[in-house]
Amino acid sequence: MVWFSYHGGHSGEFCDHAASSLQEVVEAAIDRGFTHYGLSEHCPRYREQDLYPGEERLGTEGLIRAFDGYVTRAFALRDAYAGQIELLIGFETEKLPPERWLEAMRLLKSAHAFDYVVGSVHDIDGRWIDYSPQDTRRLAEDLGGTEAMQLAYFRSVTDMVEQLRPDVVAHLDLVRKFEPAGFAFSARVAKEIERLLEAIKAHDGVIDVNCAAARNGYGPVYPLPQILSRAREMDIPVTFGDDSHGVKTVGVGLDLSRQAVCAAGYTQVSYLTRDKGWQRADIADVQPGRVG
Ligand SMILES: [Zn+2]
Ligand SMILES: [Zn+2]
Question: So where are the chain's domains?
Answer without folding.
Answer: 4-285
